[in-house]
Every structure is written in C-alpha cells, then in structure tokens.
Amino acid sequence: MEDQGIMRRADTGWLKGLFIIVVLSCFWMAGYAHGQDYQAASQPASPSDYKIAPSDVLEITVYGEEGLSRNQLVVRPDGKVSFPLIGDVEVGGLTTEQVKEIVESKVRTYIPEAMAAVSVMQLGSLQYYVVGKVAKPGMYNVSKPLTVLQALALAGGPVVFAKEDSISILRNHGKETLRLPFNYEDIKKGRNLEQNILLERGDVLVVP
Predict the structure, then answer these.
(1) Using an 8 Å Cβ cutoff, are 162 and 156 in contact?
(2) How confident is the model over 148-160, as pLDDT tens digits?
(3) Is the pTM of this model over 0.90?
(4) Are residues 197 and 147 in contact, defined by beta-carbon separation less than 8 angstroms?
(5) 3 state SS of 65
(6) What whole-number distance in Å separates Cα of residue 59 and Cα of residue 148?
(7) CA torsion 152→156→159→162, rounded to 10°?
C-alpha cells in the first residue's frame, strides 16, 4: 500500500510538472506573438514608401550619361538638390520613384528618352519637436531613432503642473494627423510600457 501511495504521488507530481510546462509554453508563445506584432508595427516604411527629407544623401544617375550622375547629393533644408543641366529639383516629401519621374521629365527636354535612377544612400537626422510644458521645448535632431521617454529626457522632462497623463504624439499619416496617447504616469509605475514607441521624423510630442 505504501508503495502504491508513493507511485500515486509520483504520478501526480509528474502531471503537475507537465501542466506547468504547458502553461509556461502558452504564455511564452503569447508573449512572442505580441512581440512580433509590436516589432512589425515598429518597422520603418518600405523603401518605395520612404519620403525624402532634408539631410538625406541621394544618388541620381542618368543611364548612358556619365556627366549626369551624382552619388553625394545632400538634400538642403529647403528640400531641394542641385543637378547638372536641370538645376534645382524639389525632392523633399517625395519618394525616390517620384523624383525619378521628375528628373526624367526635365532631362528629356535635352536628352530624349533619358532614363534615370534615384536612391537614398544615407538617411539624414531624425527631426522631431517637443512642445508644451517641458523644460526645453523646441526642435530636436538626433542621429538615430529614439523613444518617447528618451525624447522627453532630452527636453528636460515635464515641468510642474504638466498633465503627465495626457501627453500625446502627433504624427502625419498621409493627409491625416494621428494622435497617439502617452501616459507618463503609467510609464513611471511600470504600466502600459508599449506606449513608449519609437518616434518618427516629423513627430510632435505635446505635453499639456
């Protein structure tokens, strides 16, 4: 009888152990899936959708015309670059495909059936804005992506009487402006950490 009791306890212990492993595996898979979803949502736009901005470095080539190729064209603050034969070209806010069409159209005035290629060789700085009740509001330029918390830290953080639970990020999305809420009080308590997203170029961080 004693041996049977030991065997029953051993079976029960094994089953409990198996149950715990299954539960932990489910939690792990759920967390992994959530991480994958968040990572996918945080990925930058595909190259074909990327909008050229000041400080980007472009390469523009006209096939068969060595004198009409430039691989270190820095986009000026006014959103333009200078290109041989056709002068200034407005590229800010456009995709590489749109710039390609513009260059071809202008060059074909002189070289019929000219074919061009445009690519972004190097991304410029990440430009964003912090406004409202922070110690150092203004426009910021950084060389790499950063989170909302990091942006607030660079701006000196919210000041006294700031509504830390009502901070928001304004983001241009096509013709629309998205408002992304950010509750700083929750973040400080370790809650809803998924709010601490990466900023994108042109984002405006508003601290009321």
Answers:
(1) no
(2) 999 999 999 999 9
(3) no
(4) yes
(5) coil
(6) 32
(7) -10
Q: What is the pLDDT of residue 36?
A: 34
Identify residue 181 by its one-letter amino acid code.
P
Looking at this protein, which amino acid is placed at residue 163?
K
Q: Which residues pair with 139 in a beta bridge?
A: 129
- Which residues of the chain fall short of a pLDDT of 70? 1-49, 125, 143
First to last CA, the chain: 73
How would you label 109-133 residue by residue, b for 16+ Cβ within 10 Å and e otherwise? eeeeebebebebeebbebbbbbebb
For residue 19, what are the contacts with CB-CB under 8 A and spacing of at least 6?
none
Can you tell me which residue has the tokens 């405006």? 204
The candidate with the shortest Cα–Cα distance to 150, out of 196, 186, 93, 115, is: 196
**3-class DSSP state of 132:** strand
Helix (H, G, I), strand (E, B) or coil at 116: strand
The gap from C-alpha 178 to its chain's centroid, in whole angstroms, comes to 14
- Taking the C-alpha atoms of residue 126 and residue 150, their distance in angstroms, rounded to an integer, is 13
Return the residue matching tokens 């690519």.
119
Q: In Å, what is the CA distance from 101 to each residue of 23, 42, 43, 70, 71?
A: 56, 30, 27, 16, 18
- At 194, is the secondary structure helix, strand, or coil? helix
Q: What are residue 15's phi and psi, to 5 degrees?
A: -65, -40
DSSP 43: S
